[in-house]
Amino acid sequence: MKVLVIGNGGREHALAWKLLQSDQIEQVVCVPGNGGTATMQGCQNLSLAVDDFAGISEYAVANSISLVVVGPEVPLAQGITDYLQNQGLMVFGPNKAGAQIEASKAWAKALMAEAGVPTAKAAVFTEAASAKAYIHDQGAPIVIKADGLAAGKGVTVAENIAQAEAAIEAIFQGQFGSAGNSVVIEECLLGQEVSILALTDGLTIRPLLPAQDHKRVGEGDTGDNTGGMGAYAPAPIATAELMARVQTEVLERTISALQARGIDYRGVLYAGLMITPDGDFRVLEFNCRFGDPETQVILPLLETPLEYLILACIEQRLADMPPIAWKQGAAATVVAASGGYPGEYIKGKVINGLVAADTVGATVFHAGTKLNADQEIVTDGGRVLNVTGLGGNFQEALAQAYAGIKEIEFDQMYYRRDIGYRVCNG
Length: 426
Description:
The chain is of the alpha+beta class. The chain has 15 helices and 23 strands.
């Protein structure tokens, strides 16, 4: 099989890496890919934009691509699955109607209400004055979210009214583009977040290993929200009992609600949960794709060939598949970011030490990198690398990840030194 992977991040590098472990996959093409996919054996990059549906389709048809796997949420929300399927291509990822579950937080909230999915109390506003009046009535802390897609950065946990008002102003003044046409304001829930990624064929839904992300840029979970500074799996806080409840109260109810709306949802359904101190949970949001950096710790633990699961979802035969097989132990990843991220940062810094990181046993998934004209790997984004370690336990996995990242350097490189502190320190 020849597989085309859409996207250029660490998630897409991990998808290509995992697919190429199968003897059924002869080649992976990444659109547009990054420095890691450009230099990985069996993989090549194709310099097209992720929203160039016509160009992607023409290439896939002309080059006998068997399967298209869509990584990012933006092309899914724009309808890439619908377009490519209409050209006769096999695509993994929900259609445009299904992708609304991430593209609009307000739409997702309404769906959860219909389905009876436990979630935070929320209200939706289309202008700043009424939104500000609401937060004055509710008080702080309170959560302010841009309604649409904002690359994981459109959420503010406001500790006071002034912060909440500033977040509302930023959203309505266009900081997040069209994502700021409306705002969702939620009660602030306390606890730990956990990511539940599940595969579905529209009828059956099966969860992958639970993972825990570190969204704040600073150690001790301080500072601005990011796309994720590190992750580990399987997250111990997601006990077997809790996962059983998530299966029935979240995953199955959501798929039933989508069916009731006439939406045939095939792909990844990713539920971001808040686990409260009393062990209960609420759904914070849904995503319509693999998580990043959660994918970089889930796929290294997956034993079942990834394409088997993907094809079962596309062909609507997930119910007939044997249980998903997993490796024993744990995985952890640490993100190496550009100085200044998630604010402004400089690109084009030469990255050294990648071979040395591999030598100590870490797996380096490239995110914001590219191969320059001198055949050097240079920085090309905010989150630059995901350095992943495996081990029999979390301490071993984290030790391997940090041993790898210590071998790497580029100008103004930054990474959190406390990834996994909950599972290591209790």
